[in-house]
Design a protein that fits this description.
Layout (H helix, E strand, L loop, with lengths): L5 E4 L9 E5 L23 E2 L6 E4 L3 E7 L15 E11 L12 E9 L23 E8 L5 E11 L2 E6 L5 E5 L17 E4 L20 E6 L6 E5 L9 E6 L13 E7 L15 E2 L3 E4 L26 E7 L2 E6 L15 E6 L4 E8 L12 E6 L5 E5 L6 E5 L5 E7 L14 E6 L5 E6 L4 E6 L5
Antiparallel strand pairs: 1-2, 2-22, 3-4, 4-26, 5-29, 6-7, 7-8, 8-9, 10-11, 11-12, 13-14, 14-15, 15-16, 16-18, 17-22, 19-20, 20-21, 21-22, 23-24, 24-25, 25-26, 27-28, 28-29
Protein name: Tat pathway signal sequence domain protein
InterPro entries: PhoX, TAT_signal
Organism: Streptomyces qinglanensis
Length: 468
């Protein structure tokens, strides 16, 4: 699809939902394993209302509720915490006759799930000896072990005492990096330690969780991370919705690709500078590229006196962007999302979502896709948040906008289709609204899509005729 073509897509029967975008979606899959697939189909058909009022799916698909806010954790450590957010799935090996009668001989899966709890959350992450960073913090992660039929075999706390755990990303050695989207200092709002860090969460005896923050990766409003598998460089997004907006970072580990625990050896944190572009929202035309991208060392990664995005980066300043969120590696490039930008809030331009691609070998940054508002009527389906590559070669996008909430699929050819919609009864009688989707990810074998409802916190496993 030409990068200048404008389209309003996905009149799919999903209660009037639509996605408006411009750009070449096929670029998002170039060089990835998914690019070798067919690129996905035009979708799976219209969404069928769920008689139980939880999750509408296409015909032939079904869901299983794995975990719900307030239910007892199977470990006995407390209750399932609130605000389910970023998530990743890892293979845990074949267990054969140890399958306890479930999923006999099939691959099990570890599911690691963030909880974006701040102070006074509905259900905090329970504090657990040896897994708690700051006893005053109410955020953290929980870990579910699933058998081959997506029955929950175990559910426990992965890390506790952190705050505002939004997203993160898997490491090259199968651990989860959970990110705090906050900058609170010890003594503020009751916290006993500084916050705004990345932590490494393990989920088995070989890779246990460390409650020591990865301080060299910076103290700021973290959102997501993505590893360059070729060099071990880690890219980080900062989700700052007020001025000055966040930065896009890279972390150069002292022990690149060093394996479990190696990030604690430290490294150098740098922020991206696009010469002549102080705000990415000012770029509006998909396909626009910038060469000779510069990386400037962060003066004080711990932000002891000044938040990182306010620090002095010398002549030329630094490049900001509103609401930097999802981040993933594909082929030879890293992709990252700006969920939206609004001039009324201080951005230089308005959009309902951008996806950027950075090619480290060429030092080239390209605006790949812009979501809305290039439509006659502002519609749901804009403001993308979490994204992931699907086994079919397409992209899954979690919507974070107004109105009904969806997970949308996007094929390499630019066709947009609904995958899931939050039904009306997900909430409580007092608060029937459906929360945003988050944490979309696929099982290692590609047979199950896992996704969270943010509030009330609910984790679903969705199975059906996924195209591979």
């Amino acid at each position: 699809m030409p990068t200048t073509r404008r389209q309003a897509l996905a009149r799919t029967g999903a209660a009037g939902a639509a996605v408006a975008f411009s750009g070449a979606l096929s670029e998002l899959f170039t060089g990835t394993a998914a690019a070798q697939a067919t690129g996905g189909s035009a979708g799976y058909g219209p969404l069928v209302p769920d008689p139980d009022g939880l999750l509408d799916l296409p015909k032939g698909f079904r869901y299983k509720v794995l975990s719900r806010e307030g239910d007892p954790l199977r470990s006995g450590e407390g209750r399932v915490p609130s605000n389910c957010d970023g998530m990743a799935a890892f293979a845990s090996g074949r267990h054969g006759h140890h399958g306890h009668g479930h999923g006999h001989g099939r691959e099990r899966t570890w599911l690691v799930r963030n909880h974006e709890n701040r102070m006074e959350s509905r259900v905090p992450v329970p504090t657990v000896d040896g897994l708690t960073y700051d006893p005053a913090g109410e955020g953290g992660c929980t870990v579910l072990e699933l058998d081959g039929d997506n029955d929950v075999l175990a559910e426990r706390v992965g890390i506790a005492g952190t705050s505002t755990n939004c997203a993160g990303g898997p490491s090259l050695w199968d651990t989860w990096l959970t990110c705090e989207e906050t900058e609170h200092r010890a003594g503020e709002e009751g916290y006993t330690k500084d916050h705004g860090f990345v932590f490494e969460v393990g989920f088995d005896r070989r890779r246990p969780t460390s409650v020591e923050p990865l301080t060299a990766m910076g103290r700021f409003q973290h959102e997501a991370v993505a590893f360059d598998p070729h060099t071990g460089v880690v890219y980080e997004t900062e989700d700052a919705f007020d001025e000055p907006f966040g930065l896009f970072y890279r972390f150069l580990p002292r022990k690149p690709k060093g394996g479990y625990g190696s990030l604690h050896a430290g490294g150098r944190l740098e922020a991206m500078r696009v010469p002549g572009v102080p705000d990415l929202s000012a770029v509006t035309e998909p396909g626009t590229s910038f060469d000779r991208i510069e990386w400037v060392e962060v003066p004080d990664p711990l932000a002891a006196e000044t938040p990182v995005r306010l620090q002095d980066f010398g002549k030329g300043g630094i490049t900001h962007a509103q609401k930097l969120e999802g981040c993933y590696w594909g082929g030879s490039c890293v992709y990252f999302v700006s969920s939206y930008a609004r001039t009324a809030e201080g951005s230089q331009g308005d959009h309902f979502g951008q996806i950027w691609r950075y090619d480290p070998r060429r030092r080239r940054l390209t605006l790949v896709v812009v979501f809305g508002p290039d439509t006659d009527v502002q519609l749901p389906g804009e403001e993308p948040d979490n994204i992931c590559l699907a086994p079919s070669g397409g992209l899954m996008v979690c919507e974070d906008g107004a109105g009904a909430q969806h997970v949308f699929g996007v094929t390499r050819r630019g066709t947009v289709y609904p995958v899931a919609r939050g039904a009306q009864n997900i909430g409580t009688p007092q608060d029937p609204a459906w929360g945003e989707f988050a944490g979309v990810t696929f099982a290692p074998d590609g047979r199950t899509m896992y996704v969270n409802c943010y509030t009330p916190g609910t984790t679903f496993a969705v199975t059906g005729p996924w195209k591979h």
